[in-house]
Design a protein that fits this description.
This protein is mostly helical. It contains ten helices and two strands. A two-stranded antiparallel sheet has the order 1-2. A hairpin with a 4-residue loop joins strand 1 and strand 2. Helix 1 runs antiparallel to helix 2 and helix 5 runs antiparallel to helix 6. It is elongated and about 100 Å long. The C terminus is likely disordered.
Length: about 230
């Protein structure tokens, strides 16, 4: 009986040896690849956490510089930040902060360049949309109306579409294109929440153009009322 068991065990060992001889290298390489992938995944997440920590620290520095009112220093700090952490959300936030400071300090060119970078490079659609809306405002101030419309024509997230339509309406008013302005204001009015202050403001704009925003039709304005 013992000899029989010994023979069975020997056969099983022989089968295992044969199997390992045939597939051992393949199994080893598969294990190496799997373990390597796990290590790379963990390493990537560790790198991401490290990047986030460092970019957060740099954002704090940019914020301090902005509070100090030194535009040139803020611009240099942002340039350093985008060179090192171009894909981090903190860099996008820093760009919006520096652009606002530059614009308020009478340096629209710096604001324009910074907002253009955020609009073109932001990984977060929300920040890219905000950058485009603010960039359009800077262009409107410079009377670059066609450039502003192009800026708002794409890259706007759905949640910012109403604001973009409202701004387009403003541009068309400035260009004396009343029909286009009405169409954009109506889009904005429909898209805004019914309780939004922005919606009421757009309704006032439409009313001033002779449009009943709620009905979506032209109001009959009598000559007497016009007076």
């Amino acid at each position: 009986m013992a000899n029989h068991l010994d023979l069975e065990e020997q056969e099983q060992l022989d089968q295992i040896k044969h199997f390992w001889k045939q597939y051992g290298n393949l199994i080893t390489w598969i294990l190496i690849a799997v373990l390597g992938s796990i290590a790379a995944w963990n390493g990537y997440h560790m790198w991401q956490r490290n990047q986030a920590t460092q970019s957060a620290a740099m954002y704090d520095e940019v914020e301090k510089v902005v509070r100090s009112g030194d535009v040139q220093k803020a611009e240099r700090a942002f340039t350093d930040m985008k060179d090192r952490f171009a894909k981090m959300t903190y860099t996008e936030q820093a760009g919006l902060l520096v652009a606002k400071m530059a614009y308020e300090s009478g340096k629209p060119d710096v604001a324009k360049a910074t907002l253009t970078w955020v609009a073109d490079n932001a990984s977060d659609p929300g920040y890219a949309s905000i950058a485009r809306l603010r960039l359009a405002a800077v262009m409107i101030e410079a009377k670059a109306y066609d450039d502003a419309l192009k800026t708002l024509a794409s890259g706007i997230a759905d949640e910012f579409a109403a604001l973009a339509a409202d701004r387009k309406g403003d541009i068309y008013v400035l260009q004396d294109k009343k029909n286009e302005a009405k169409a954009e204001y109506q889009k904005a009015f429909k898209a805004f929440d019914s309780q939004s202050e922005y919606r009421r403001l757009v309704g006032v704009k439409l009313s001033a153009m002779g449009v009943n925003a709620e009905a979506g039709s032209e109001k009959a304005v009598s000559d007497e009322g016009a007076k």
